[in-house]
Specification:
CATH class of the largest domain: Alpha Beta
Structural class: alpha/beta
Oligomer: single chain
Number of helices: 16
Shape: globular
Radius of gyration: 21 Å
Number of strands: 17
Largest sheet: 9 strands, parallel
CATH superfamily of the largest domain: Metal-dependent hydrolases
Strand content: 15-25%
Bound molecules: zinc ion
């Protein structure tokens, strides 16, 4: 049993941004037994009730729930920062040539370590990961993630058209390789399997049927893909699927959407698509730095929330500009500000919820995303170096909300001093 002592901020209530409450306690104690929080309260009182236990002193800085990234591409670590192109050209010139290199398992192993290190050092404790087009590379990702202790849901990426030949597969081969990977990793420790067609632009109806078969045959598997990211992509998908009513429909007519589905982007959503997503209980992963970097557009968060679509945040590395979910939260805020009357004004607690609890809810992890009694101790210690602007800001914060806003505005991987998942302290590979 361990007692963690410090200032704890989290957002346990609510499901959508807009009026989220911040729970804050200064000099609090979290009692952790077998990775789970069993008691929480003022330090002195809690220590008296639990004498003789190890105390980890995290005073100075903030204890926050571990960050949750609901859309991040493992094979794209090395192409982060390729600025200046729209989606389809960026894929052709940067992402896809790099993804083809993961055919080499040695190459994939090096990338997997860089990827996991990127997540852990940014304070991400749970991620829905877009895997590789190569089964051996996905196996390596699972191995590396399992060794690190992260909570990772991931899968083999499916494509059978529109991409360079080395990245293509067939529906039968995809089914066989996916179910073999799922057998090895789904529900094992902290890893789970996700059925992952790249996007319907690169997946035929036969391939999407194979995806539906894997989803049916792997009990409790997740589904993830892309949707409505960029205008040229949306137009191309409409041409490829003349019979589908819209982009969301290309997945839905194969039975792929439900409460275990997470679709990334949805920048150019129509109202019927939002209604359908809400009805299915599917989630949208909002990827704000990627949307800005590729010029994809401004996310209509107000319409998503208004129509009852569940949302969470994703870094979308490598179109996104890094692993930090604090930066994604800031960018989510900035975009809504720029949208003026069409935007949804976000508070710091709204942003923390989006980066933690919303993601846990989207991934069906009920015991993750806040630091209440009964929850897993998935946490980060934000502890900036003395004298840096965030340190100055935290020491002079007017309130817990203000400290949180400063952390979102100024914080980054360098300020994450420690990371725990299920009570285990993680060290990057
Ligand atoms: Zn993506």
């Amino acid at each position: 049993m361990t007692i963690f002592r410090g200032t704890v901020l989290d957002t346990p209530d609510g499901t959508a941004p807009g009026g989220i409450r911040l729970r804050s306690e200064t000099d609090a104690a979290l009692v952790v037994v077998d990775g789970r929080i069993t008691a929480r309260g003022p330090f002195a009182e809690t220590l008296r009730a639990h004498p003789g236990h190890d105390v980890v002193d995290l005073r100075g800085g903030l204890i926050l729930p571990g960050l949750v990234d609901t859309h991040v591409h493992y094979p794209q670590v090395r192409v982060i920062g390729a600025l200046g192109l729209p989606l389809l050209q960026w894929l052709d010139e940067w992402a896809l040539p790099e993804e083809a290199r993961l055919e080499s398992t040695d190459y994939a192993r090096a990338v997997a370590e860089e990827f996991v290190r990127g997540l852990v050092s940014a304070g991400t404790t749970t991620a829905l990961v877009f895997g590789s087009h190569f089964a051996a590379a996905v196996d390596v990702l699972f191995e590396t993630a399992a060794r690190s202790g992260l909570r990772v849901t991931a899968g083999l990426v499916a494509s059978d058209r529109s991409l360079p030949e080395p990245l293509l597969t067939t529906p039968d081969r995809f089914y066989d390789e996916s179910t073999a990977l799922a057998e090895r990793w789904h529900g094992v420790g902290r890893t789970r399997y996700a059925v992952t067609p790249r996007f319907s632009y690169s997946a035929s109806d036969e391939m999407l049927d194979a995806c539906a078969s894997v989803l049916k045959d792997v009990d409790g598997a997740w589904f993830t893909s892309h949707v409505n990211e960029n205008v040229a992509e949306v137009t191309a998908v409409a041409q490829l699927f003349a019979a589908a009513e819209h982009y969301v429909g290309t997945y839905d007519r194969h039975g792929l959407l439900g409460s275990r589905a997470v679709l990334a982007h949805n920048v150019h959503a129509t109202d019927p698509e939002l209604d359908l997503l809400a009805g299915r209980g599917a989630s949208v992963s909002h990827c704000p730095t990627s949307n800005a970097s590729l010029g994809s557009g401004m996310f209509p968060m107000r319409r998503h929330v208004g129509q009852g679509v569940r949302i969470a945040l994703g870094s979308d590395v490598g179109a996104g500009t890094g692993f930090s979910m604090l930066k994604e939260a800031l960018q989510a805020y900035l975009v809504q500000q720029l949208l003026g009357p069409d935007g949804l004004p976000l508070t710091a607690p709204d942003l923390l919820h989006l980066a933690t609890r919303s993601g846990a809810l989207a991934l069906g992890l009920d015991d993750v995303g806040d630091l209440g009694v009964g929850k897993q101790f998935d946490a980060i210690w934000v502890r900036p170096a003395v004298g840096l602007p965030l340190d100055v800001g935290l020491r002079h914060a007017a309130s817990p909300e203000d400290a949180l806003a400063k952390t979102i505005a100024l914080g980054g991987p360098a300020d994450i001093a420690a990371v725990w998942v299920g009570g285990d302290r993680l060290t990057p590979p």
